[in-house]
Design a protein that fits this description.
Layout: H1 11-20, E1 22-25, H2 31-38, E2 45-50, E3 56-61, H3 68-76, H4 79-87, E4 91-102, E5 110-113, E6 121-122, E7 126-132, E8 143-144, E9 200-204, E10 209-211, E11 221-229, E12 234-235, E13 264-267
Antiparallel strand pairs: 1-9, 2-3, 3-4, 4-11, 4-13, 5-10, 6-12, 7-9, 7-11, 8-10
Length: 271
């Protein structure tokens, strides 16, 4: 288990993460890490758009067990310790990775959503680090509603139609209807940052976020998201369905995550 003290967030950045549920961190990964991740192929992917004219939008998920570049990023890069510091956790488990690809000019949006309601995990210490592998202008990156991680659970919309009213699966009765954030982004305090390769946005599992798509006409937008869980996070069985879903692991609802499925990838040294 590799550990590192490089590129850790400052106390002010940790405080901003706790307050807003999202923080922009500069220069977390060096050029060697970015080049390695650019070389990582996606083995298991979910297409959201695949047109005859070559326009593509897909998400490859949980490839770290089979792809060396992603496994090294999970276990050896600063990312896990960054997540531990942001969540003030003594240890973190890896959940899974996500590789996102939009070809040039694919402006199909990702609808506003929280991550945890879709996922088979639960907890206040779930943290994602989203790294663009290409220069990412502000108009093409993830956008966030600061403070939304403290406003409960919102309904889950389908990603395949850009969130135009279709639900992901059967919805829970306690889910709040999704507000029309795009109608008044300033009123909701929407934040986004232009990012260079090596920068990231780190955000909590209940922070509302979405993407307008890739508005660059001359280059694709590639990004890797590394998802971690800190102290107190547990496995969750959701009758309404999850994505991703797992089977044959032996975890029950409420179990601690420590397992071959979600191994501990960083732990604070004794003393």
């Amino acid at each position: 288990m590799a550990q590192t003290t490089a590129a850790l967030p400052s106390e002010s950045e940790v405080a901003a993460y706790a307050r807003d549920g999202v923080v922009c961190l500069r220069g977390v990964l060096g050029p060697d890490w970015i080049e390695a991740l650019r070389a990582a192929p996606g083995a298991i992917y979910h297409p959201y758009l695949d047109e005859p004219d070559g326009r593509i939008f897909f998400n490859a998920s949980r490839d770290w067990p089979r792809i060396d570049e992603l496994r090294r990023a999970v276990f050896e890069s600063p990312a896990a310790e960054v997540a531990a510091r942001l969540t003030r956790s003594a240890k973190v488990n890896v959940l899974w990775d996500g590789l996102f690809y939009r070809s040039a000019g694919v402006d199909q949006p990702t609808p506003w959503h929280q991550d945890v309601p879709y996922w088979p995990v639960e907890g206040e210490t779930i943290c994602s680090l989203w790294f663009p592998l290409d220069p990412a202008p502000e108009e093409s990156v993830l956008a966030f509603v600061p403070g939304s991680h403290r406003k409960g659970r919102f309904e889950r919309l389908s990603f395949r139609d850009g969130g135009q009213g279709a639900h992901f699966a059967a919805e829970r009765d306690d889910a709040t209807p999704m507000p029309d954030i795009d109608a008044d982004p300033a009123g909701h305090g929407v934040r986004r940052w232009a990012l260079a390769p090596g920068d990231c946005v780190a955000f909590a599992g209940y922070t509302l976020h979405g993407s307008p798509g890739n508005h660059a006409a001359d280059r694709p937008l590639r990004a890797v998201s590394l998802r971690f869980a800190g102290d107190g996070a547990t496995y969750a069985v959701r009758p309404e369905g999850t994505s991703p879903s797992f089977a044959g692991h032996g975890l029950a609802h409420g179990d601690a995550l420590d397992s071959a499925l979600f191994p501990v990838v960083w732990q604070r040294a004794a003393g």
